[in-house]
Amino acid sequence: MSMQKSTATREQVAPGFVIRRALPLGRKQHVGPFLLLDQMGPRSLNAGEGQGIPPHPHRGFETITYMISGAVEHHDSLGNKGVVRSGEVQWMTAGAGVIHAEYIAPEMKAEGGVLHGFQIWVNLPRKDKLVKPSYQQFADHEFPIHEKDGVRLKLIAGTFGDWTSPIVTRTPLTVIHLHLEADASYQVPLIAGFEMAAYVADGEVAINGESFIDGQVLFATDEKVFTVTAKKSAHVLILGGEPINEPIVSYGPFVMNEEHEIREAILDYQSGKFGTIPV
């Protein structure tokens, strides 16, 4: 059995804000519709510590903010403002264009705590590139959760067995969060027609018999199942989906199908068509 094993890079995305990037990675530019997988933390913050991501635009894709612990506050040019807390998922469809900013939430800024979460980018098909921006946000208890024999499985998106996530997606995809105690094991059958990956966010595991530590990712090649066994307590994110099979042209925060659409996105942003974030 062949395995494509890689290690996430460290990137500074804002002053004082360093993340681990598991996608894109080397020659692996996407997994199905997933374009980017960034991990924040886990990092212990004292009261008053921590920076956020200042205002920036998006067009042509969706962003997922998922917090395992801690809290971030969101502001955008549509006038939305809210907090994504521990266990919650915010799924933003940027579509035609939005400017947003993410900061350490005031409650966490005041008290400190462990910041641990993800930002994930999901491509949109051509027909949905310019849809009206929208949001979905759900608390931890609103997702299908299975707990047995030291394993907690949370289905963030898609379907898995008889379970279906409340998140509405625009292409077929699945996101699963596994939390395993030491020596616990779980098998995740891979989905026919999906490109899939398993990312070890924390701890140490064996996947299909090979050792992985935090920050390492397995891109499925000819595997039929991910058998995950924890050597010590671990968090593993499994994601995948059907390839969209359309041209991808990206420039920073814009992901479109054609070069001229990138130029249009830049001009629309510069001319103020994305709006501004209210003070």
Topology:
Layout: E1 4-7, E2 9-14, E3 17-23, E4 34-45, E5 53-58, E6 61-69, E7 72-76, E8 81-84, E9 89-93, E10 98-104, H1 106-111, E11 113-123, E12 134-138, E13 145-148, E14 151-157, E15 159-160, E16 163-164, E17 173-180, E18 185-189, E19 195-207, E20 210-213, E21 216-219, E22 225-241, E23 249-251, E24 254-256, H2 259-270
Antiparallel strand pairs: 1-21, 2-3, 3-4, 4-11, 5-10, 6-9, 6-11, 7-8, 7-10, 9-12, 13-14, 14-17, 15-16, 17-22, 18-22, 19-20, 19-21, 19-22, 23-24
CATH class: Mainly Beta
Q: Any idea of the CATH topology?
A: Jelly Rolls
Gyration radius, to the nearest Å?
Answer: 18 Å
Number of helices: 2
Percent range for β-strand residues:
over 45%
Strands, total number: 24
What are the low-pLDDT stretches, counting only 5+ consecutive residues below 50? none
Quickly give the CATH architecture: Sandwich
**Which structural class fits the helix and strand makeup?**
mainly beta
Helix fraction, binned, reads under 10%
Q: Give the end-to-end Cα distance, rounded to a whole number of Å.
A: 55 Å
- CATH homologous superfamily identity: Jelly Rolls
Order of helices and strands: EEEEEEEEEEHEEEEEEEEEEEEEEH
Number of domains: 1
Instruction: Quote the average pLDDT.
Output: 95
Short description:
With 279 residues, the protein is mainly β.
Which labels suit this protein?
279 residues; mainly beta; Jelly Rolls; 9-stranded antiparallel sheet; 2 helices; 55% strand; globular
Any overview of this molecule?
With 279 residues, the chain is mainly β. The protein has one domain (4-270): Jelly Rolls (Sandwich). 6% of the residues lie in helices and 55% in strands. It has two helices and 24 strands. The chain has helices at residues 106-111, 259-270; strands at residues 4-7, 9-14, 17-23, 34-45, 53-58, 61-69, 72-76, 81-84, 89-93, 98-104, 113-123, 134-138, 145-148, 151-157, 159-160, 163-164, 173-180, 185-189, 195-207, 210-213, 216-219, 225-241, 249-251, 254-256. Strands 1, 13, 14, 17, 18, 19, 20, 21 and 22 form a nine-stranded antiparallel beta sheet that branches. Strands 2-3-4-11-6-9-12 form a seven-stranded antiparallel beta sheet. It has a four-stranded antiparallel beta sheet with strand order 5-10-7-8. The N and C termini lie far apart (55 Å).
